[in-house]
Amino acid sequence: MREHDVRTRRSADEFPRTEHLAWKIAEVAADPVAVLPETEAMVINRLIDNAAVSAASVIRRPVTVARTQALAHPCRKGAAVFGVEGRVSAEWAAWANGVAVRELDFHDTFLAAEYSHPGDNIPALVAVAQQLGVRGSDLIRGIVTAYEVQVDLVKGICLHEHKIDHVAHLGPSVAAGLGTMLRLDPETIYAAVGQALHLTTATRQSRKGSISSWKAFAPAWAGKVAIEAVDRAMRGEGAPAPIWEGEDGVIAWLLGGPERTYHVPLPEPGEPKCAILDTYTKEHSAEYQSQAPIDLARRLRERLIGSGADLDQIASIVLHTSHHTHVVIGTGSGDPQKFDPDATRETLDHSVPYIFAVALQDGTWHHERSYAPERAHRADTIELWSKICTVEDPAWTRRYHSNDPAEKAFGARAVVTLKSGETIVDELAVADAHPLGARPFARAQYIAKFTELADGVVESAERQRFLDLVDGVAAIRPGGLDALNVRVDPRVLDKAPTIPSGIFR
C-alpha cells in the first residue's frame, strides 16, 4: 500500500491530473490484478449476507416504496428487483435492492476515521452486471475494487467530523467498482468518480435526532447516482476537477479546509485488493458500535442472574466507550429522542442505552421483536433505559483508532451499580461475530443467517438454489447473473403495505 497526501490546491498551482486522488483511484480500478481466493470467498459471504437481510426486510414499508418505484421503470434488458419477477432499468434495481439491503442496519461494516457499510456497493454492481450481461468473475472483480476504494477512503478521510454523511465515500467506490467490472479506462473512471462524489455529499442530519427511513434510502441513492455517473462518463462527459483538492472542492469547503492534509492509502500497481478482508458483518440488527455492547449485556445478564441479583436492583449503568460510540449512539449525542419509547425504529437502532437495556432484560436481540412498539413501551424497560448513560474513555477512543487489529476495539466497559452499592464491572472489546471475537463469522454462519432470515419468506428449495449458485458465482457466464435474484414467496409479498400513488406509476 502507498499512502497519498491529499490537500487543497489553488487553481493557479501546477497540479497535474495524475496527482488527483480521483485519478489515483481510477488507476487502482483499472489495474487488472488477480483476485485472491480468500478475497473471492469473502465476496461470496457478503452476497449471501445481503440476500439474508434483504429477505428479512422485503415487506417493510421503505423497501416496499423503493420496489414500487423501481417496478414503474420496466426495461426488457434490465436488472432484477429482489424477490420479484420482471426486469427494470439498472439504476432503479440498484435503488430498490440498495434499500432492501440497508433497511435493517444488519449487513457489513467498516469503521476507521469514518463509518461505512461496504456491502452497500453490491446492489449497484449486481444490477449493472445483470443489465449488461457481465460474467461472474468480472462482478467479483468489481466488488473487490468497490470495497477497496471505500475502505481506503474510510481509513484516510473523516466525514462525520464535519457533519457530512458517510455515503460521500460510497458514490466514488461504486463508480470505481463499476469501472473495474466493465473494464473501463482510467479516463472514464476518473470522470465517473468525480461526478459521483460531487453528487453524493450530504449532511449527517439523516443520522441525527429523530432518524427517518431516509437512512436506508441514502446509500441506495448513492449507488443510483454512481451508475448514472458512469453512464455519462462512458458517453464522454467529464466531471468537476480536482473534486477533492480544488479551491472550491470537497476538502476546502466541506471537510478540513485548505490547511488540512488527509492521508489515503491505496494499493500499488499489481498489488492485490484485499480490503474486504478488513470488514466485518453483524450478528445483530443494530448500529455496529452496539454489536459488542449487545453481547456484553447478554453476558452480564447471565452473571447478574447467576449471582441472584434482580435487574430491578440496578441503580445505574455507565458504559465507558470511545468518542464515536458516545456521540453517535450514546448520551454524548445530546439527542433526547434516544430515550423516547415513541421514537422511530431508526432512532432506537442508534440508541445504545435502549439497546443495552433490552439485551440485558431479554438475553437476546431480534431484528423485529426488539424494536416492536410494545417492547419499547414496557414500563420496566423504560425505567432501566433511563438509568443507562455513556461516557467517553480516552483509552477506548485510542483503541477505536488503532491500526493494530489485535488492539482495535468497538466495545465498552460496563459499570453496573446496584442499589445496595455493589458494583459489577465487565467489558468486551469486539463483538462475538467479529473475526477476533468469541464466535467469528465464517461461511457456515453466513449461511445460517440467510437460512434464519429467509425462513418463512423464501421457500426452502429456492434458498438452496441460491446458495448452490452463489458458491460458484465466479464461473457464471455472461447473461447468467440474473439467477442471483432470490424469489420471494408471493404470499409474503401480498402482506406488504399498500403504497399511495406517486409520480412514478
TrEMBL record:
EC number, as in UniProt: 4.2.1.3, 4.2.1.79
Coiled coil location: none
GO terms, molecular function: 2-methylcitrate dehydratase activity; aconitate hydratase activity
Identify the stretch annotated as signal peptide in this record: none
Q: Record's InterPro entries? A: 2-Methylcitrate_Dehydratase, MmgE/PrpD_sf, MmgE/PrpD_sf_1, MmgE/PrpD_sf_2, MmgE_PrpD, MmgE_PrpD_C, MmgE_PrpD_N
Biological process (GO) annotations held by this record are: propionate metabolic process; tricarboxylic acid cycle
Assembly information from the UniProt record: Monomer.
PANTHER family reported in the protein's UniProt record: 2-METHYLCITRATE DEHYDRATASE, 2-METHYLCITRATE DEHYDRATASE-RELATED
Q: Which NCBIfam families match?
A: PrpD_hiGCgrampos
What's the protein name?
A: 2-methylcitrate dehydratase
